[in-house]
Amino acid sequence: MSTFRAATVFAVTVLMFALGPALAPAQDYPTKSITLIVPFAAGGPTDTVARIVSDHMSRTLGQAIVIENTLGAGGTTASTRAMRAAPDGYTIIMGHMGTHAAAVALYPNLAYKPDVDFEPISMAAGTPVVILGKKDFPAKDLKEFIAYVKANDGTLNQAHAGVGSVAHVTGLLLDRLLDVKPTLIPFQGTAPAMNALIGGQIDFMTDQIVNVVPQVQGGTIKAYAIGTPDRNPALPDVPTSKEAGLPDFQASAWNALFAPKGTPQPILDRLSDALSKALDDPNTRKRLLDLGSDIPDGDRRGQKALAALVKSEVARWTPIIKASGNP
Ligand code: MLT
User: Is the pLDDT confidence value at 222 over 70?
Assistant: First the structure.
């Protein structure tokens, strides 16, 4: 064997030996359970979407997916934890329109850049936003709701899930459109906020439909309008904001999987594929659709589509947030 050939074989062997661990994980991934960080309280919309899709993903991947609810700062605490996790595919996060878009305009010292410090995996579900009131809110429709909120401005309170959360940002949009300044009450997620709305401690809020359907169907809260051009089959009696007289309230959130920057491409492909299989699974689809989710199909799935979505959403929400005088 020529000296050059011997040297090449030796170099490749050394390379394989050096990169072995980095290469091996991608090929054998996953070899242990995966931690899926959820930036909000259990039982809320992001947690619900995470649990529904991870159920099927864990079957495809052959390893358990363990949900870790890490709370605080409108989801940015969890996102910072995820950014700093090892890029080995064993820690991923269910981020959303708040943590991976709106937070940029709301946290001047944000520890991460959503479009730089994360590898997008794929969108999991679109979650239209609904305007809600407590059960005995003295209004039968959105027109009366608007009149009452304006007439009682300064005496009402509005819940959200932390600065930069979907409930906060879409709540700001509603308040700016109505030119009102209710008292904003933060919670660690819209699951606890919903309990306070059901209990009557909170007057109104905006929330993602997957957290709303069971309560509206059960009559424990009132839904005045949904922020999408069309009605949602899960809440057929809830008018669109346009039908209800507030057409500028267009608000539909999204929840999506991200991994730390540097996670190997074959692992990202494996996770993207497992999520896509989950979104094609009839039972998973039924669970998401029954809660009013908008399931991404075709070219709305995948890493490229999510990267583009993050960029466009940062561009969309930044001026809205700035216009509402926050921060
Ligand atoms: C949650 O899961 O509690 C929500 O996604 C919080 C929010 O952003 O409104």
Answer: yes
